[in-house]
Amino acid sequence: MRKLIAANWKMYKTRAEAEATAHQLVSLLGTVPDGHEVILFAPFTAIEATRRGLGTTAHMHVGGQNLYPVAEGAFTGEISAAMLRDCGADWVLAGHSERRHIMDESDLLVSEKTAFALDSGLNVVLCIGETLEERESGRLEDVLRRQLDSGLKKVPSDLDPDRLAVAYEPVWAIGTGKVASGSDIVEAHAIVRGLLGSFLGSKAGHIAILYGGSVKPGNAASILNLDNVDGLLVGGASLQAESFAKIVRPE
Ligand code: PGA
Fold this sequence. Notes:
Bound molecules: 2-phosphoglycolic acid
Shape: globular
Strand order of the largest sheet: 1-2-3-4-5-6-7-8
Number of helices: 10
Largest sheet: 8 strands, parallel, barrel
Distance between the termini: 22 Å
């Protein structure tokens, strides 16, 4: 299975900063390692500049961090799938924990975003993950089942599995410096793989499952080697081209 290494730039970078970071990343990497795909999830205003910074380098993609699941209309402050594609995005995040917990996005909205984005030609990284309280009260599997069940409910049955990835990001490990242990990651990814099988059947084995939460150059390679880890979603350590390049191509 290919490895997807994704950067989530969140609400960082102007157009000039994004273009320079993308360009520097290309210079540092030369080419993307065999069997890998790199995705940079840039702020909306910097998607076009990020695309320009990447030039025509193969296996490097740009994505948006959110969208509204309607073609167009009176939705002040929102952005459509067509607008993202127009700027050069071919991927989008759905259900990132910051949107679920800070913007109060519901499972239903995440489900509609996932289906609408896929239907509009965007590829999707569907993000799921439990809070510390949910984990400590023994509800890990229930939370992952609920988020995946709703997130995948409206996904068409004939979907090309290359167009969808799931990112397992324990909320307590995002931006905190607390990385989940190898055994926590293996356990959660096995649960996700099993649930994907029950919701999507034989396609499940071909859907990339990414880990996210305090990934750094020092831990990326060992996490990527774990069972059922097909990629990484990296926040803080993706903001500097040098550190993200070391995650994409460990020394
Ligand atoms: P982090 O963020 O790497 O800074 O923990 C990950 C994410 O939010 O996707």
